[in-house]
Structure formats: C-alpha cells, structure tokens
Write a structure and sequence with these properties.
about 210 residues; four-stranded antiparallel sheet; six-stranded antiparallel β-barrel; Thrombin, subunit H; single chain; 3 helices; 10 strands; mainly beta
Length: about 210
C-alpha cells in the first residue's frame, strides 16, 4: 500500500454522510487505546473516499465491501505505523491457513467495545466449507473469505479491520472484516466474513495509479 491510502470496508463507514467525509473525516494511525493519548498517534484528514461502484449497502452479501481512503498528507512510517502488504491478485489461501484479526470490536456478544486494540488468531475457512448450507450458505461468495470458529472470531465493531495471513513466510492483508452472524459472535458454523482483498487488486491498482 501507499502512505496516503487506507484500506477499509464500507460496512465500517456511514454512507449517509458520504458527501461530508472529505471535509470532516479523519484517520488516526498508530492508535492503541481509544481513551488515552500516547503521543504516537497521527491524525490525518481524508481528502477523498473511493467506493467500489458495485457496493450495495442494502445487500452486504453481494460483496464489494471495500473502500480506499485517500489522506491529505502521507503517513510517517515508524515502529507503530507501517505499510500493509497486499496479496497477489486472485490468491486463494488453503483451509486452516494461519491468520490474525485485529480490532476494537466487542469482546463478547452484547458486550462492550474494547478500549484497547485486540488481536486473535483465526483459522481460515475455505469457500467450500463456509458456503455449506448449515454454515453461511449462499450468503457468502467467492469474493469473500471466512475465518474463525466457535473459539475465536471477530465481533461487532471490528468491521473495516484487517485479516493478516501468513503464507510462504510473509504476512499480507488478505481480508477486511465485513460482517458477523446476527446470532452473535463465536456462533458455531458462522465464522467472521471478510472481503477477500486479492479479488480487488485490479480495482485498487486503478486508484493507486
């Protein structure tokens, strides 16, 4: 990624205020605790929000839940702020591949949002398993990736956060948290659903040019 672009999901953004974003939206980089300032944070204004043209907020299951935020100034890279690595276009990772989710989402169903950044290891669930009728069924498509299970998962408030996966000795941002089950977090056979980043490399390339 480039130092003036932030990758996120549209589910994490308020589409009703899209016309206001360029004037009022800010990105905080290097954040760890939402309620304490460490001095390491970089607060940068957003100059433009790039929305995928096929995104439908009334049908999240259709996919295209991806956005790029263009910053007014470039981020300063340090030990707290680094660039994310993108996977090759079209890459599909194997079932049970090693991945991590990070976010400030709820730590339990109906619980409070986390004040501090949390991390959980999630096994990847391939499309064959995730799309089984007693799992997510037709709600998920091949442009999505599932991860997690009954032990660990994402939760409400994690939308827009990364799924970093290790493959061939390198971590890449393979997913962007999109949605969880309405039955609750950690619900059996309802892993967290992410936008599969490798399905949108060409779209991102068109914006980065």
């Amino acid at each position: 990624m480039l130092r003036f672009l932030v990758l996120t999901s549209l589910a994490a953004l308020d589409l009703s205020s899209v016309q206001i974003w360029a004037m009022t939206f800010r990105v905080v980089l290097g954040e760890h605790d939402l309620y304490q300032t460490s001095g390491r944070e970089q607060i940068i204004a957003v100059s433009k929000v790039h929305i995928h043209s096929r995104w439908n907020p009334y049908n999240v299951a259709a996919g295209y839940d991806i956005a790029l935020l263009r910053l007014e100034t470039e981020a300063t890279l340090n030990s707290y702020v680094q660039l994310g690595s993108l996977p090759p276009s079209g890459q599909l990772l194997p079932h049970n591949n090693f991945c991590y989710i990070t976010g400030w989402g709820r730590t339990s169903t109906g619980g409070s949002l986390s004040a501090q950044l949390k991390q959980a290891q999630l096994p990847l669930v391939d499309h064959t398993n995730c799309s089984k009728s007693d799992w997510w069924g037709s709600t998920v498509n091949t442009n999505m990736v599932c991860a997690g299970g009954a032990a660990e998962s994402g939760c409400n408030g994690d939308s827009g956060g990364p799924l970093n996966c290790l493959f061939n000795g390198q971590y890449s941002v393979h997913g962007i948290a999109s949605f969880v089950s309405s039955y609750g977090c950690n619900y059996p056979k309802k892993p967290t659903v992410f936008t599969r980043v490798s399905a949108y490399i060409e779209w991102m390339d068109s914006i980065m040019m």
